[in-house]
Design a protein that fits this description.
471 residues; alpha/beta; Alkaline Phosphatase, subunit A; 2 domains; globular
Length: 471
C-alpha cells in the first residue's frame, strides 16, 4: 500500500512539474516614441514610396527585430490607445482606456485599483520584473523603484520618467545623466538596461518568468553613443511628401502650435536612426540569450512601443495627433509553440488590447471588465494573413480629438475642426478628407455611429466635458 502511495505521489508530482514546464515565459520589449518605418519588417510590407519617405535608400537595418516578425507575427494596424506616453502605457498594462486608469495625460499616477497583466501572472507563480521607463507614478523623476509595483515584483531598475543617456551603478540606485559624452556599451542607457535585464533573466531562467524591458529611446533628445552617432552620417534625409502641404489644406488638429517644421535637420534624424540601431543590437543580445539557454520555443517575446514619432511628416516631430506615424506603433510577436512564422495581421488594435490578448495566449485568468479585446485567437489561428475590418477606438483626450479606425479607414472628430475621414489604402499619406466624398457615405455613417457609442461606452469624460459632439 505504501509503495502504491509513493508511486501515486511521484506521478502527481511529475504531472505538476510538466504542467509548470508548459507555462510560457513572457518577454516584453517596449521602446518610446518609435516610428514604425524605421523597422525593416514594416518596410518590407510597404510600397517603396511609403517605406522610404525620407528618400530612396534612407533606412536603418533592424535584423533582430525583423527576426521576431519573421519567426512570428507582425501587426500592421496596432495603435496607441492615446498617442502620449502615460495614457498609452496605462492601457498597455491594464487593458483599460486611459480615462479608466486616471492616467489620461502625462504624469498622472495610475489608479491604485488598476490590475495589470503582471499581477495576474505573479499570482500564477511567475517571477515578474520590470526594467526601464515606467511613467505611471506621477511627477517623480527619475523615481527609481516606485513603492507601488503593480505586480512587477523586481522593480529595482524601474524608473518613473526621463530620457537619461547615461546610467551607472550607484550605492542605492543607478546614477543618471543626460549628457551622452563619455558613454560606452556599459553605461549608455539602452545597453545598461539591457545588461540588467539579462542579469534578471539569468537569475529567473529556471522558473516561469514575466519580464518587461522599457527602453526610453528613440525618444528625444536625439543623441546616441559611438559608433551609432556616426553610423548614418552618410545619409541625407529629404523632406517627406507631406511636408509640402500648406496649413490651409491640413486638419486643424494636425497643426502643431509649438513648431511648424519646414525642413529636416540632418544630425537629429541621423542620430534617431543610430538610436534605433543600438536598440536592435540589444534586442539581438536578448534573442541570443534565449537561444543559448534553450528558452526560445517556450518564450513569448514581443517588441512594441508606446507611440510613434512623426519625424517631419505633416510638418511635425514627436506625437500626440491621430496621424499614422504618431499613433500607429510597431508590434511584432513570436511564440513558436502557437504562432506560425511570417504571419501578417491586418486588424486594428490599440494598446488596450494587449493585456487581454497576452493573458489569453498564455491561458492565464482574464481580468474582469477590461475595455480591450482578447485577440489571442487572431495571432494563433492557422491563417497566414488575417484581414479584419473591425473598428477600434483611439482617444486624444488631452488634445480634444477622438478617432475610429480599422485596417483601411480612419475617422477623426475634434473639438476644433470638422470631421476628417482618411482612406489609408488610396491615400496612405493622409492628405485627403473623404468624409463627404461620393461613395463614402456608408463608411462615414458607420464609423461616426461607432465613435458616438464608444465615447459613452468608455466614459471618455474629458471629451464629454469639452462638448465633443458626434453628429
Amino acid at each position: 500500500m505504501r509503495k502504491i502511495t509513493i508511486t501515486l505521489v511521484l506521478a502527481i508530482s511529475c504531472i505538476i512539474l510538466n504542467a509548470k514546464e508548459k507555462q510560457p515565459n513572457l518577454i516584453v520589449i517596449m521602446t518610446d516614441e518609435h516610428n514604425f518605418r524605421t523597422l525593416g519588417c514594416y518596410r518590407d510590407l510597404m510600397t517603396d514610396e511609403q517605406a522610404y519617405v525620407w528618400g530612396e535608400g534612407v533606412a536603418v537595418e533592424t535584423p533582430n527585430i525583423d527576426r521576431i516578425a519573421d519567426e512570428g507575427a507582425i501587426a500592421m494596424n496596432f495603435y496607441s490607445s492615446s498617442p502620449v506616453c502615460t495614457p498609452s502605457r496605462a492601457s498597455f498594462v491594464s487593458g483599460l482606456y486611459p480615462q479608466a486608469t486616471d492616467s489620461y495625460k502625462n504624469n498622472i499616477p495610475m489608479n491604485d485599483k488598476v490590475v495589470t497583466f503582471a499581477q495576474v501572472l505573479q499570482k500564477e507563480g511567475y517571477a515578474t520584473s520590470y526594467v526601464g521607463k515606467w511613467h505611471l507614478d506621477g511627477d517623480a523623476k527619475p523615481g527609481f523603484a516606485p513603492k507601488r509595483h503593480f505586480g512587477f515584483e523586481d522593480n529595482r531598475y524601474m524608473f518613473n520618467r526621463g530620457h537619461w543617456k547615461k546610467m551607472e551603478d550607484g550605492a542605492t540606485e543607478p546614477a543618471v545623466e543626460m549628457n551622452v559624452k563619455g558613454t560606452d556599451e556599459n553605461s549608455f542607457t539602452t545597453d545598461y538596461l539591457t545588461t540588467k535585464f539579462l542579469e534578471i533573466l539569468e537569475r529567473d531562467k529556471g522558473d516561469a518568468f514575466c519580464a518587461m524591458l522599457s527602453i526610453p529611446d528613440p525618444h528625444t533628445p536625439n543623441t546616441v553613443r559611438e559608433p551609432y552617432t556616426s553610423m548614418f552620417d552618410h545619409l541625407n534625409f529629404e523632406a517627406p511628401k507631406t511636408m509640402q502641404v500648406s496649413k490651409e489644406d491640413m486638419p486643424v488638429w494636425g497643426i502643431s502650435k509649438k513648431e511648424f517644421v519646414t525642413e529636416l535637420k540632418q544630425n537629429p534624424m541621423q542620430d534617431y536612426f543610430g538610436m534605433v540601431k543600438c536598440i536592435d543590437d540589444n534586442v539581438g543580445r536578448i534573442l541570443r540569450f534565449l537561444d543559448d539557454n534553450e528558452l526560445t520555443d517556450n518564450t513569448i517575446i514581443l517588441f512594441t512601443s508606446d507611440h510613434g514619432d512623426m519625424m517631419g511628416e505633416h510638418h511635425r516631430h514627436n506625437k500626440g495627433v491621430a496621424y499614422e506615424t504618431s499613433a500607429r506603433i510597431p508590434f511584432v510577436i513570436r511564440y513558436p509553440k502557437a504562432i506560425m512564422q511570417g504571419k501578417v495581421v491586418r486588424r486594428a488594435f490599440t494598446t488596450a488590447d494587449f493585456t487581454p490578448t497576452i493573458l489569453g495566449m498564455m491561458k492565464a485568468p482574464a481580468i474582469k471588465n477590461v475595455h480591450g479585446s482578447n485577440a489571442s485567437e487572431v495571432f494563433t489561428n492557422t491563417e497566414k494573413e488575417v484581414v479584419d475590418g473591425r473598428y477600434n477606438y483611439m482617444t486624444g483626450t488631452a488634445s480634444n480629438w477622438v478617432a475610429a479606425m480599422n485596417h483601411r479607414y480612419k475617422l477623426v472628430f475634434s473639438v476644433t475642426d470638422s470631421p476628417w475621414l482618411f482612406d489609408l489604402e488610396k491615400d496612405p499619406d493622409e492628405l485627403v478628407n473623404y468624409y463627404n466624398a461620393k461613395g463614402y457615405e456608408t463608411i462615414s455613417k458607420d464609423m461616426k455611429r461607432f465613435l458616438s457609442e464608444a465615447i459613452e461606452k468608455y466614459n471618455d469624460r474629458v471629451l464629454i466635458k469639452n462638448n465633443l459632439i458626434i453628429k
